[in-house]
Amino acid sequence: MLREGPVVVILGPTAVGKSSVAIELAMRAGGEIISADSRAFFRGLDIVTDKPQIEERREVPHHLIDIVGLTGSYDAMMFRSDVERLIPEIRARGRVPIIVGGGTLYLGAILRGIFTGPSADPELRKELLSEPLDELYGRLREVDPQAAIKIHANDRLRIVRALEVHRITGQPISDLQKEATPLRLDFAIFGHRMEREAHRRAIAERVREMLADGLIDEVRSLRASGLTEDHQAHRTIGIPETEAFLDGKASRQGLEERLIVNTWKLARRQMAWFKRDLDVTWIDITGRSPQEVAEDILSRVEGK
Questions:
Q1: The pTM is what?
Q2: Residue 301 vs residues 84, 144, 255: alpha-carbon distances, Å
Q3: What confidence score (pLDDT) does residue 157 get?
Q4: Mean pLDDT of successive 10-residue segments in the chain (304 residues)?
Q5: Distance, CA of 141 to chain centre
Q6: Own/partner pairs for 171-174, CB < 8 Å, 24+ apart?
Q7: Hey, where are the domains in the chain?
Q8: What local confidence, expressed as pLDDT, does residue 116 receive?
Q9: How far apart are alpha carbons 96 and 87 in whole angstroms?
Q10: Per-residue pLDDT at 3
């Protein structure tokens, strides 16, 4: 039975319909969903993160959504700890744990392992955060070229953390990360992908739906609630772009185009990460319904 089998993981780039498939699978298998969306943890980011609807969450239990305040923080170690706690709790209820999302940092914490490293040095971190991003990335390429290959040039937090670890320990974080170990669980990992042009259309459609559903008003409200660029939740595609529109730096059409471009870039980065070192069963979901894909996953897991 699936309930006695592996922990199911559904991953893939943004806008390929992972959440819909996970909900269908959970309804068929008696499952509960653990979200690995890197921004759904934060309360208030509903439209910008395309969270599952309240009705869907009532029908299928979801975990790790809306667990952090808007100006709070959440990291990969917290996620790993929460997953370690939730899986036995879900199984004790006779349910199937299903992890779903595209948050590479968080999925990496459970599927590849995570290096905890030294505690953050507040003064050093403040110093690094105040420096120009291009200079920080250039320094990272000098002291830890392997880490620079894996960390995107715009990912300020991860760049700063890598430099912080190097400054404190004198060792590249890429070397220390080799000590990391995945969670000792049996995972059945299914990746979703779409034909390139179909994926681009899906991203464009999602962006237009977000705008129609009130993305601009949501971001305006988030700003009024105290969200600034100093907060983790601010680093969400859709927020800086919409703020540029609100500040008169972009047109409505320019906002839409920028959201589509940046979301596509994110999807490409996610796919590059997923293709490295993970034992993933890839499913092309182009033109397939969530029900079909859920049945496909169910039959594959039950057949193992």
A1: 0.84
A2: 21, 40, 42
A3: 83
A4: 80 96 96 96 97 94 97 92 97 96 93 80 89 94 92 87 92 82 92 97 98 98 95 95 97 98 95 85 96 96 78
A5: 25
A6: 172/143, 172/144, 172/146, 172/147, 173/115, 173/117, 173/144, 173/147, 174/144, 174/146, 174/147, 174/150
A7: 2-112+181-302, 122-179
A8: 67
A9: 9
A10: 62
Residues 6+ apart with CB under 8 A from 227: 44, 70, 71, 233, 234, 239
| 83's tokens | 């997953």
d(CA 157, CA 296): 38
Instruction: Tell me the Ramachandran region of residue 279: left when phi exceeds 0, alpha when psi lies from -120 to 50, beta otherwise.
Output: beta
Q: Which residue is listed with tokens 């969670």?
A: 183
CB atoms within 10 A of CB 302: 11
pLDDT at 167: 93
Q: DSSP assignment, residue 119?
A: P
End-to-end CA distance of the chain: 10
Residue 33 to residue 98: CA distance in whole angstroms? 5
Strands (E), 131-223: 187-193
Q: Which CATH class is domain 2-112+181-302?
A: alpha beta
* CATH number of the 122-179 domain: 1.10.20.140
pLDDT on residue 80: 94
